[in-house]
Structure formats: C-alpha cells, structure tokens
Amino acid sequence: MADTAREAGSSPGTASQRDQHPEKGTAQSSQTAASDTSSSRSEPRPHLHAKTFLAVFAICVIYFVQIYNVVGSGAQTNTIAITLGNGSTADGVWLSSSIAIGTAVLSPIFSQAADYWGRRWFLVLSTFIGAVGSIIVARATSMNMVIAGFAITSISYGAQPLLHAVSSEVLPRRYRSWGQAADLIANGLGGITALLCSGAFSRTSNVPSEGFRKFWYLGTGLFVLATVLCFVFYNPPQTERERSFSFSEKLGKLDWVGYFLLTSGIVLFCIGLSWSENPFPWSNAHVSATFGVGMALIIALAVYETFFKKDGMFHHGLFKSRNFPIALVCLFCEGLAFFSANNYFAFQVGILYETDALLVATRYSVAIIVSIFSAAAAGMYCAHYKRVRWITVASFCVFTAFFACMATSGVGFDTEVWGYPVLLGTALGMSLCVLVTIAQLSTPPELIAIATGLVIGLRSLGGSVGLAIYNALLNGALNHLGDNIAQAVLPLGLPPQSVGPLIGALADHHEELIPKIEGVTPQIIEAGVYALKETFATGFRRVWTAASCFVAVAAIAACFLKEEGKEFTMRIDNPIEKEEELYSDVERAHHA
C-alpha cells in the first residue's frame, strides 16, 4: 500500500485526478471547442530559459550520432562485406539488424528503469558505450569483429526512447511536436552527414574499401562529444520516484520476467527469420526451430503481460485511449518502412545505377534533406491546429506511393529514381514526429518514458522483422543469379568451363579478374553484367512490394486515430528548471 501511495504521489495532479474521477473526464471531454480554447488561453505560460534549450540540444546531438551510425551501417554494408567478408553480403544484414534488435530489446528496459534511477546516467553511460562499439568497428579485422562492434554500439540505442521522452517532457505539452521535430531535424542532419562522409571516405581513401574505418573513427569522436554535452547540459532534478524507493525496492519494481521473455523471444525470432534462405531453407531446423521457439516466447510474453503483470513494460494504464495501440501498430509499420529504405535504397542505386559512392550517398541524402523540412512542418502543424489523424494517414499514403514507385523501377530507371526519395523524405519526417507525439499525449504523464520505450521498441522490432523478411526475399532472387548469368553468356560463345569463374567474379565484385577469364569478350561481359543487374532488380522489387503492403496497413489503421486537442496544453510534465524560474509570482499562484 505504501508503494502504491508513493507511485501515485509521483504523478502530476491533473492526471491522477482524471484517473480517480472518470465521470469528470467524460464531462470535460464533452465541453465545447470554445470552452477548451478559453481554458487554454487562461493557462499560465512558462518562460523557458537557456537551461531547457541546451538540454534539448544535448539530446539532439545524441540523436545525431545515433542516426549517423545507423545510416552508416546501411550505406557501408557492401564496403565492409568486400573488405572483411570476402565479397559476400550474406552477413551484412547483421550490421543493421544488431542495432534494430538492441533497440527493440533494451528500449522498454531502459525506459522503465529510468523512471526509478533517472534519465541522465542512462543517457550518458549508454552513449559512451556507443563510442566503445564504434572504435571496435573502426579497427575490425574480421566480419565477426564488426558485428560484435555493432552489437556493443546497439546498447546505446536502448536509451533512444529517453531522447524522445526528454525532448517532450521538458517542454509544454502543446509544443511536444516541436520537440519531436527537433529530434528529427537532428536525425536528418545526422543522416546527411553519414551519407556524405560515407561516400567521401570511400572515394578519397587510398584503398576505397578501407574508407569505412575513417567513418567509424569519426563516429567514435561524435559519440564522445555527445556524451560530454549530455553530462554537462542535462542535469534534471530528482523525481519523486527516484527519492521515494530504496535500491532493493527499485529492483523489485522492474519487470524481470518480462525482460527475459522479451529478450530471448525477439533475438531467437529475428535469428530464425534472418537464417531463412540465408543459407538455410525453412524446413531446416536452424530456421524452423529457432523461429518457433522465439514465437512461443513472444506469445508467453503477451500472456504474462496481459494477465499477470499489469504494471510492467506493457503497463495497462497506457491502453486507456485507443490512440496508443494504434500508434504502436503504425510505428511498427514505420520501422518496417524506414529500415527497408535505409538498407536497400542505396544498395539498389549502387548496384544498378551508380559506381561513385558519393553519388550513391547523394541520392539517399535527398530523402534525408526533405525529411528535415517535413518534420518541421508536421511539428508546427500539430502545435498550431492540435490535429494528428489525417496528417498521419497522409504520411503513410506517401510511403505507399514511394514503395510502389520503387517496385516498378529497374535497370533502366536511372533518372526516375532521382525523384523518388522526395516521397520517402516527406513520409519519414511527417510520420515519426506525429506518431511519437500521439503516443505521448494519449498516456498518463508519469508513464511517458515507458510509453516512449514501447513505441520506439516496437518501431525497431518492425525494423528487425522487416530486415529478416527483406533479406529472405532478396536472397530468394539471388539464388538464381548463377543460372541467369549462365543463360545470358553461354549462347554468346563463352566456353562452359569459363562460366563458373565469370559468375564468381561478377557475384563477388572482382571486376579486375573478368578480362583474364578464357573466352570472355566485351559482348559477353555486357550480357553477364546485365543479367546480374536484372537478378538484383527482381530481388529489390520483391522488397519494395512487401514494404508497400506494410505501410498500406498502417494508413488504414491511422484512419481510426482520435483527435486529442484538449491535451495540447501549456503544462510541463517534468521541467528541468525550477518553478520560480518558469513562472512569475502571479503565474505560480495561478498554476498552484
């Protein structure tokens, strides 16, 4: 009972009063729009100072370096595979997958624990661990060492929900969308920096394939910078929960059974999917058993959190509004969309259209640049009009259009593919900004970290599942690569004994070996390269088609969102400044 009282005491008064008197909440929700407007105008307006804005800036720097690392993991996959993986891209999916899995697994854990120990040290320490992982990647001597480096770096992404939570809770609720827009602007700048550095380092290195090392040396420095800025500028006061419980009581509050089921279930589930057609068929026990056990653990997690643990990672207080589960579905699909574009757009451009790494990066950077402006526009729209439903629907319709365009592209679509990233960037900026705002405003203020942990975790889970599915679809097409090349070159007179070496040289990107193969002519080389590109194009079309189906589902789900205009108030749920700094004497009396 004492614990319950202390939990209640840590929540803001307005939220707890609404929970205790639901009939009042019903009456309030039926008030006219004029009454709501009058009430919002009479609210005291907090006066924010540099301390708040510097804290948000430090959070944005962390987001900048996280996206730098994520985008680099996609853009540099081929380079790392050629350098350390003997040309094979089979293990390349684990570079981005390790980040996605780490985010999905650790986000809810970090978010719940941060409610009892505070946000600051989770942000500072996890970001420093990102620096450790980056230096391992930069100095890697094998593909396994690279994957290990990314796995360590993925720990820093467990704090990603806290970035979204802090950006919202230190600002007035009405301007939460601005906080999310700031995060996404940092996101976009980090993505552009990653793409341009990736292309430039590969272009200017004495050994182009070694450019990835410079990329992650720079990433190490950025992680260290972000760690220092967060330590200096983000120093919030302790909350009631931090002060009220002893260390052992805090440990008892955590959802240990849920953590075990979540971690083991997601890891096995994603490994099983990633192994499908890479290299095992579904009938192989490596795939079916691993996938089946992972699914069983995830089902057990759902049962446990539904019937046995009502205040754990999936706190039942989060689901009082239908907007929160809808936001979860939409963000899961948005994760599927983002990771498909992040991993396969530059991949397709590099295989089918461009040989210059900088031009490949420039094409994808168009989407990132557009996302900065669309995120800013979405944030201002939500803050001004207090509406979220149709802008969310529109964002997923634009996503669907992008993937439909990409699904119709092929070897001869060099010019058209320059324009498609505009659609991608528009959708990316709009969707994440609005959906995180929806999720946070539809849940009690004291559960903002847990709520954000779930939405970011589900988004990353979508990415993990999506990457495994897309990898299987692409590999299914590439399994026919050898046959397709053979069918293209044998009728042109290539000796049968030369077919194997030609296929190997083309598949492993060893162009310097091709002229040395017996019987090869320029016409045969051209036919072989065209067959290789067409095979890849078939695999890419499968990826884009699958992604378009996922985002279409999200567009339909978003139609059922409920407008929550009354939640866009001037209240700050967890200010970093003292009350006397935010309000004048008269305003404090009114606020009290």
Structural notes for this entry:
The protein is built from 26 helices and no strands. Helix content is 74%, strand content 0%. Helix 21 (448-478) runs antiparallel to helix 24. The protein is mainly α and 592 residues long. One of its GO terms (molecular function) is transmembrane transporter activity. This is Major facilitator superfamily domain-containing protein. Keywords: Membrane, Transmembrane, Transmembrane helix. Its main location: membrane. It comes from Neurospora hispaniola.
Summarize this entry quickly.
The protein is an all-alpha fold. The chain is built from 26 helices and no strands.
Briefly note the structural class of the backbone.
mainly alpha
Largest sheet: none
Shape: globular
SSE run: HHHHHHHHHHHHHHHHHHHHHHHHHH
Counting DSSP H or I runs of 4 or more residues, the number of helices is 26
Work out the helicity level: over 70%
Q: Overall pLDDT, averaged? A: 83
Protein traits:
globular, 592 residues, 74% helix, mainly alpha
Write the layout of secondary structure elements.
Blueprint: H1 2-9, H2 13-20, H3 22-29, H4 33-41, H5 50-75, H6 77-84, H7 93-117, H8 120-138, H9 143-153, H10 160-169, H11 176-204, H12 211-233, H13 240-244, H14 247-253, H15 256-275, H16 285-307, H17 323-352, H18 357-385, H19 389-407, H20 420-441, H21 448-478, H22 481-489, H23 496-507, H24 522-558, H25 579-582, H26 585-591
